[in-house]
């Protein structure tokens, strides 16, 4: 009965009062570690990790006369990701698991494109883009609203419901892309095979030329959006309601908040922003496709989470993730033995390592002390 | 083969992967963990099992490989969420993204190196995937051929579901894992090793999902496409079916195949339309994209209906929350 | 076994959580066949210490000996192996399992399969220990005292010789406590060693052989029960002389402020939680609500605050029926509700938000601006911190980081700051030490003097008898009667709480209806 078990070598204890610089250092270390793991993988593929990473992080712009094209592509990719991540963070703050970003993006893009094709080509560029965004956000927002309504009314699992909408939206997109018919305004009339048509010129994104480089209007809009979301969450009554509902639904009810209304309203906004991002994306890349979302619905979740739902953090993280994605497309075109899906892998590894780093922020590991070891030896005698 | 028998055959063939996914997720969720990485886990299990199985030219080795490789994914999920206390939703989603990334990475790698195996050339492997007639039972007129002439995957899936039901309900380890999923603090207080139990069951659950992934690969003759994954959303549907099956692996058999009737129309619709042009001719008029979307539409509808009708919640009480003993 | 050897012996046990020292150099020992009371205020580290013996926590330093042999307890599994069993204050039971399965899940060597005979085997053991017990009953359907019996039976079934009970009497009626103590005495006679955690002195005097006292995480002394008395123990426990009496402030009662007539409310499962209850609160009066845990208190509080649907009856506030009004309108009428749930943070506070942000919870929506007014909330937060002595680094600290007492001060402080005319307060001193508790009682008495009507839902009958003017007793959602606090006794309340005594109808008159009711007034008004 008195046989003693040995004390484990390590045990985990909650940590308190960690400093901000320590957290930053830990995250930095995590990213470096993840890149290190990626480097091993690259070596395995017989690619030089230093060259690969250099090309990836600089987007191959060093000494490149066409560098401005890379920057344009970069902005083009960054904008939808940034909007989607911000939008998702609104829902996540409320602990509402909207993982339907993909579907909301697709349908927003379709609605935006519908406006682009239907509006007279004589219409003003700004008006057209504005109407596209309105249409995209309405469609996206209504999907979000119905998900939220089902959640508050019947407690329908929002994670799975939004997921199913993702696939349904994808097939709707494919349906429009693969069905040749008179009513199908999205396709090229001159092509025998079904093929998505380019949007008219007045629906194409307005750009501001800076030298050779042309800056998308949407980039300015998104910077404004970051400021608005930050202010909204931090200083408005509605932002305060989101914080309370996310923290404790019981407390929110107790404080007299209309919890269902808050959930529906916030989810509408979240999905509407994603729909708007879809419409802007159409305007920016000129045509629909069934890969138009570029997985922002998924990547946005990762970004929002890594940034701890902080708008400023979201800017930083999405800027970095976009470098990773654009960079690996550039790099993989120069390294024939590395597949472009390497970016997904690297992204996954970074997230895993950062999640693991979170553990070291919340906990610390204590090693078995010598005296207790002696003690347990005594006990074994 | 009559129409009924071939419909049932198609029903079982194309929906058994969902049974594996659902049963695997039920076992996982019974331990109190919500693993949203089913899609990725099935993809990794599938590609690993297929490559190894073809290499060894043995289906058995392929099944074992898909089980163990997927189980490793599960153990990794357990490491992140049980040991490192990471958020279960985010970890699961990342396993899906990472898993699909790895799937394409490996597949493209083999393909571009010209080393992708042709499953249809692996005779030993292929032979074992053919339907097995159960003696006597398969001779029953009308029903026999439909139900008792199936591939090893169908029998194995049903056996696993029944065994898991029995295990969770009638054995002490089953009782213990249920207690971990309901109230880990209570389980811990009576001396149950919560961490170990979670690791084991998350691992087994993911392993089962992996076999389902391999079946999806086999159903598609193991041909790899650079743009589309074999699993194609079935992992997500499996997670939804868990709710439909009320966390009961026996009901999962029923749920999967009832659900599967709609799902099977996707592949079997044209045949039915041809056979019964009067009654079912309209099946041919539905655009193929809508047929493909059908399982997801049905799942969404089922989710809403079950949430309306199911006031009593059967889900394990501690699901989604990590357990840390010294929490105060 | 040698009688001079202690069944369990703790030496110099220290445990810290971050910067907080929960236990510092604690010594404790129990002989075989002895009942040791572990006495200390809330927050003095009793539960932490016991959790180290039961393997939940791990001490930073110090040694544990079982039967004279040093051991290292790393998990509840180890603890069970050494014959230690703990009955936790918050029961560690699986609600959806039967009683038998809750025991069976932790048994060793009982085979791989679950056989039907497990019910009989557990019945046998429970009969042996003299419990009347149905092993097939599902825990969710059990009363608190049944759950406790199950926990005790479970540690006995596992063969524990050293049994720890954490505040076992907190949730029981006087009659149930008597039954529990009989069981403990029988266990003691059979040679078990028992450690009972409590802060109730009369129980210490009644049941224990020796008392070990902790204060603020430190070991104070161990005394023989026969050589001490309640006042001495209090002084040891609190560290300075305290007056044990809560003063009942005498005020002149006003007319009824809040009247409840024939009120019926359902619980979450849809069955009756409150069944045709009548009572009223006057201004300047504290009305206590006594009852076994979970007999409708929570539902009653929620219904008055507008958070739960009322199935029938009226809630009249100053002559207006408030049934059906949204929570916001009820807050604006000056009815403040503070309910302290078991986890303390569930309702009334948003734990991740700062003290400042929690201050604006109920009035953030005032004014037309779309922005929140955080500046005045910060000023208010600072006021409450200063006035009630809340220990916090700043007004911007998340409430979650504060200790239990400070959390409650923030909550009660905010409620009172809003200047209510009716205060509904449930378990306001749950988990507080004596000084903090008295601070809360003082606040309530001050409000009473100002003419506020107070509904006080409590756990500790001694406190309620001293603080309240009247006490109403609930049993399974039914009103058992309303009694004057200075005319009743704990025994009478206990009988009413278990439903053994029902004085809700005296001479055919329903208890809890005011003579100068405002309800009649409104009815008359309607007639006109």
Description:
The complex is a heterotrimer of chains A (381), B (328) and C (528). Chain A is mainly alpha-helical and 381 residues long. Chain A has one domain: ABC transporter involved in vitamin B12 uptake, BtuC (Orthogonal Bundle). Chain A has helices at 20-44, 49-58, 67-93, 101-118, 125-154, 158-178, 217-235, 237-247, 249-254, 259-285, 296-306, 311-334, 342-362, 370-380; strands at residues 10-14, 207-210, 213-216, 363-367. In chain A, a hairpin with a 2-residue loop joins strand 2 and strand 3. Chain A starts with 9 loop residues before the first strand and ends with a helix. Chain B has 328 residues and is an all-alpha fold. Chain B has a two-stranded antiparallel sheet. The mean pLDDT of chain B is 90. Chain C is α/β, with parallel strands linked by helices and 528 residues long. Chain C contains 17 helices and 22 strands. Chain C has helices spanning 46-53, 76-81, 99-104, 117-128, 144-157, 174-189, 201-207, 230-238, 297-304, 327-332, 355-359, 374-388, 404-417, 434-449, 461-467, 490-497, 518-527, and strands at residues 8-17, 20-30, 35-39, 61-66, 69-71, 84-87, 162-166, 193-198, 210-215, 218-224, 256-266, 272-282, 286-290, 310-317, 320-321, 335-339, 422-426, 453-457, 470-475, 478-484, 505-506, 509-510. In chain C, helix 13 (404-417) packs parallel to helix 14. The longest helix of chain C is centred in the middle third of the chain and has 16 residues, at 174-189. The chains are: A mainly alpha (381), B mainly alpha (328), C alpha/beta (528). Chains in contact: A-B, A-C, B-C.
Q: What's the β-strand tally of chain C? A: 22
Oligomer: heterotrimer
CATH structural class of the largest domain in chain C:
Alpha Beta
* Major sheet characteristics of chain A: 2 strands, antiparallel
* Approximate helicity band of chain C: 25-40%
Strand content of chain C: 25-35%
Specify the structural class of chain C. alpha/beta
CATH superfamily grouping of the largest domain in chain C:
P-loop containing nucleotide triphosphate hydrolases
Instruction: Calculate the mean pLDDT score of chain A and round it.
Output: 88
Query: Strand count, sense and closure of the main sheet of chain C?
Result: 6 strands, mixed
CATH architecture of chain A: Orthogonal Bundle
Instruction: Name the average pLDDT of chain C.
Output: 86
